[in-house]
Amino acid sequence: MTHPSAPTSPDPSEVPLDADAVLARLAAYRGHDAPTHGGRVLSYVYDSGLAALDELAARAAREVQAVNGLDPTTFPSVALMEGDLVTFGRQILSGPDAVGSVTSGGTESCLLGVKAARETWRERHPGSSARPTIVLPQTAHAAFHKAAHYLDMDVDVVPVDPATGTLSATALAQRLDEATALVVVSAPAYPHGVLDPVADVAAAAREAGVPCHVDACIGGLVLPFWEAAGGGPVPPWDFRVPGVTSISADLHKYGYAPKGSSLLLFADRALDRARYFALTDWPGYPVVNSTVLGSRSATSLAAAWAVTAALGTQGYVELTRRVVSATAAVRARVDGIPGLRVLGDPTGPLMAVVADESASGEDRVDPHLWAAAVARRGFVLQGQPGLTQADGSVLPRSTHLTITPVTDRVLGELVEALAAGADDVRGQVAPGLGGGRAGGSDPASGESSLPDPTELARAAREDGELDLTAVLALIETLPRDVSARMLVEFLAAFTEPRPR
Predict the structure, then answer these.
(1) Cα–Cα dist 453/461, whole Å
(2) CA 300 to chain centre
């Protein structure tokens, strides 16, 4: 019975909603964003170029807008869609018996892969006082460092060859010991687009009894179709390789699904079960979580399910064919630009462009100045700072390019911008050391000479401009922990509510 004084719920039809005004405000906010379609941003976004596919994903997400992925027994559609996606992953990653889940993205997939390895290590080493360790290349994604930080583990970083961007499997194998809980390799590594020696590393891990995770977040839905699309053979890297125990592959990258979906697959059920969290020792409902989140939206899951179902294997081959063609054209153009070169021999649609050290000073092109010049011509590339590795070798500063299916639509403009941008800055010297020093800043200047991160954020918000070349130079020059703290302060200030 309703208490006489209790307010009654209003008729939903009487709740005032000015939808047009709200959406107009959102459109105004979106006006500040980099373009997510059209091929002018060569990182972060993966545009299939198929408007109908985007609309299908939006409609699928709307169908499950109110569904809570926390409990698939209440919402079986979650289990059904996830099962279909795992089956799809089994097929393209050559793991007919693989099991796993759909996560919110590559970082969560990597974190859960690390958690599964840590729990398995603990079972094998009961009562050990050692700290479990992840052994990985310098080029492994930051998500694994984040996972180690969250899960109280150590990271043993193996330097890579500055000329090729990849590592010696023998050097990595020599790092394996009783503390090693997981070995990580990439297919390909994001910074340079280079495929690690997966088969050799996995063999060494298998001999040592250590799980081997292949981070294919960027390549997991493009490399399986690369050869069929005309891109040439790809060295083995998936579940066909003995010793590969888990793979992460993002559906929201070259799977062309909206952001928020990734596949995490395991070769055996025991390792898979170790990623779960379960608790019955409390008075509420039984908690069993297959991912980090408890309550979670099913919208990204449904969108990814719809996209993969609509495209199928042949659809992915056709989209990859466009990627292969555009990648070859961009690579050929970069190879023809005096003062620049592609680092190593990338496998797939990513590449890193560095200064050609064999060129004379007046002909050399700094990759960060080049990226800024290309941006002025309408294309956004991604600068990457240089880095001194533990063995003293230096990974040169570079500019990263991610090629997608829509790149072929703007190919003429893009290659012209790449060449003209190099002409704009040829012979110029960028700020900073350029060598990626891992040591300290100038003792004479000290940290007091650093720019105020809050002021940088304020200026960036007011005029929409940020000198990324200068920021990257600071990262190269300062101790990495100092630059990391500075960037935290910058982003915190940039995202704080503005004063009214």
Answers:
(1) 12
(2) 17
Helices (H), 50-129: 51-63, 76-92, 106-124
What is the token pair recorded at 398?
């570079």
Assign 3-class secondary structure to 194-246: CCCCHHHHHHHHHHHCCCEEEECCCCCCCHHHHCCCCCCCCCCCCCCCCCEEE
pLDDT band of residue 9 (cuts 50, 70, 90) is low
Residue 215, φ and ψ in degrees, nearest 5: -85, 95
Q: Token pair for residue 140? A: 């492994």
pTM assigned to the model: 0.93
> What are the phi and psi torsion angles at 464 (to 5°)?
70, 10
- 171-196: burial string, b at 16+ Cβ within 10 Å, e else: ebbebbeebbbbbbbbbbbbbbbbbb
| pLDDT exceeds 60 at position 168 | yes
In angstroms, the CA 287 to CA 268 distance is 23
Q: 3-class DSSP state for residue 400?
A: strand
How much of the chain exceeds pLDDT 70, in percent?
Answer: 93
Q: What is the largest CA-CA distance in the chain?
A: 87
**For 436-464, what is each residue's pLDDT tens digit?**
333 333 433 444 456 788 888 888 888 77
**Half-sphere exposure at residue 442, Cβ-oriented, CA atoms within 13 angstroms:** 8
Single-letter residue type at 371: A
**How many CA atoms lie within 13 Å of 275's alpha carbon, on the beta-carbon side?**
25
* Nearest alpha carbon to residue 238 among 262, 222, 259, 257: 222
Whether omega for the bond prior to residue 188 falls within 30 degrees of 0, making it cis, is: yes
**Mean pLDDT of all residues in 18-44:** 94
CA 294/CA 311 separation, integer angstroms = 30
201 neighbors 231 (Cβ within 8 angstroms): no
Distance of CA 470 to the CA centre of its chain: 24
Strand 180-186 vs strand 99-103: parallel, antiparallel, or unpaired? unpaired
Give me the numbers of helices (H) and strands (E) for the chain, helices first please.
15, 15
Q: What is the CB neighbour count within 10 angstroms for residue 104?
A: 20
* Backbone phi, psi, residue 136, to 5°: -150, 160
One-letter amino acid identity for 339?
G
Dihedral sign (CA 317, 318, 321, 327): negative
Q: Strands 287-289, 382-384: parallel, antiparallel or unpaired by DSSP? A: unpaired
- Note the pLDDT of residue 470: 86
Question: Dihedral sign, CA of 486, 489, 492, 498?
Answer: negative
In the sheet that holds 133-137, the strands lie side by side as 99-103, 262-266, 244-250, 212-215, 180-186, 133-137, 154-158
Amino acid at position 64, single letter: V
